[in-house]
Amino acid sequence: MIKRKAILLIALAMSIALSSGCSILTDSVSTRTNAPTANISETTAASEAINQNGNSSSSSGGESSQNNEGSDTSSNTETSTEDTSASSDGAQAAQGGSATSVVPAAPIAITSDLTVHFLDVGQADATLIQLPNGQAMLIDGGNSGDADNIMRYMRSLNITVIDYLVATHPHADHIGGLPAIIGAMDIGEIYMPRVSHTTQTFERLLTAIQDKGMQINTARDGVNILSIPELQIDIIAPVRDDYSELNDHSAVIMIVYGSTGFLFMGDAEILAEGHITANVSADVLKVGHHGSHTSTSAAFLSRVSPSYAVISVGSGNSYGHPTDAVLNRLDSAGANVYRTDLQGTVVITSDGSSITVNVAPAPYQANAPPSSPSAEPSQAPQAPQAPQTTSQPPVSAPEPTPSSAPGNSDIVVFITNTGARYHLDGCRHLAQSKIETTLSAAKAQGLTACGTCRPPA
Ligand SMILES: [Zn+2]
Ligand SMILES: [Zn+2]
Q1: Looking at the domain 2-97+108-357, which fold is it?
Q2: Contact at 8 Å (CB) between 131 and 231?
Q3: Distance, CA 72 to ligand 1 centroid (Å)?
Q4: Which residue from 295, 349, 374, 429 has the fewest beta carbons nearer than 10 Å?
């Protein structure tokens, strides 16, 4: 079975490689005058990359990584629709990049903000970035049930094109929503590490890319995504391609805007962290692997020295993320921590010199009741819903669209008399009985999303 899938993947990869041929990226480059020429040569590795992808498909994405820790294996994540609920505050979190504050006289034109939306997609990852040049970037796309919410959020910001799409690594909680997003939106360039995975989710991703007639740019250390005055986007990992753990293949992204830096770790673990040779010093750290203790070593943290640390994690997740160990390390490193499970979508904005966050830091909160004595006692009892900062401007999505961002808890879904799942209209599991209700009501009953029709989670 696995072998057959691997062969299918190879075939898919080969056909993508073949169909892309040598005329790589001519389309997207021509429409992107800002793209540096270096970009072109970098992307020529694409077809070759996916070729090798196929060849090594079972060597790295396979056995060991699949069973380790279990936190990201597709079998778990694909069905773990628990709690992707969230996001009901997502829209409110959107600052909308309409900052009108006086721009200081900068030596080089900084015309707009860099706005990073750490979307609340439950126990998964999806980060939307509005670049100051007007382009948009998406790092990961959550689980498959998150695609609609993510796209709705983008629409609320008037984003119709994803200029740069990064799939950090092939785990379902990172790529699950991407096939639908790729199918529905205009995509500029796609970056993925040179590693494969024998899951249907990964197959769907490759198929979506193939159907789009696109090719994959290899994500690895040294690849530049964008380089324009005051804005630099680089991939600084994976440094190696022989990791046994799929998470260690994660594309790690560094964005430097003016004097501010943002570091996005994907699910990279401590081994991969240690291999990174690039400068990782950053103001904002997207914490690796949802706060798992297998990532974010104290040594790495001291290199990054972040002031802000964001953890994308689902409340009540079965993995115990974020772990006390990582919360302690972040606390010791002096970072303010923001968590999507406690605060919903977190929006961090840089004007090139200073950084603002749409919510106050999360209270220090060890997951286990007996907290260490070093915990900040003053903040421990705070309510989970962090209050908004007083300086927060009135929330304004650029184009106030009717539905706001992730979190459509009142969309219509259907349940059956006896089933434990809720469904979209037309699902074959509704043959016996079909009762209309709302998403929030279904979830309140403890029902979970059907794996066949894949309604929003
Ligand atoms: Zn992972
Ligand atoms: Zn993950």
Answers
A1: Metallo-beta-lactamase; Chain A (3.60.15)
A2: yes
A3: 5
A4: 374
